[in-house]
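Q: Could you fold this chain for me?
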Amino acid sequence: MNKIKFLLLFIFLWMVNVAHAQIKHYDFNILAYGNIGFGVLENDKDVNYNMNSNSSDLQLNYRITHRFGLATGVGVNQLSGNSFDTIGYFHHERILLKIPLLAVLEYNISDNFRVAPSFGFYAQTILKDQYEYLNNSQKNNYNGWNYGAQLGFGLAYRVSNRFSVGFNYGLQFDLSKFKINPDLETDNKQKLGKLNALGIILIIEL
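A: Sure. Below is the predicted structure, expressed as structure tokens.
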């Protein structure tokens, strides 16, 4: 974990250094993402298990320079997976609302193609949390907010002066754990580790 934190700090400082080297620009664009992927739900007391992910994000990017910007917005991530605990086998569904704060770099690698790597942090909260067992179900076992870090890399084709569309890869992992409902007789905490996702990116110039 210390190596990951050091790498994230190095990337952030490098991106800030690049930003200072650019000419002031000041404008906005919209970044829209749609991804599918998978991650591992890490438990303190129970077994870890895989979760499938379907996510969408909409961000407003404030371009401080031609290449460097700061973006924030809102994202929704729907997770689903199967596992077991002391009660039995279950199907788990969770919907998360995420608010990111990202540093975004944009490079034109040709007249028609551009790359848009990003790095930053997010806070997220649980909108829905449901465990379906064979004979019963449980809701709202976890609640509250947690935070994490994410990396992204988009490759987009310029369709026109205002629109670019392409493919995106994303990696995110929680740095803190969700709180468990105090009514439950367990202290098992959870976080989502190493969520890898692939999808599409849409860039709209304003």
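A (continued): The radius of gyration is 19 Å.
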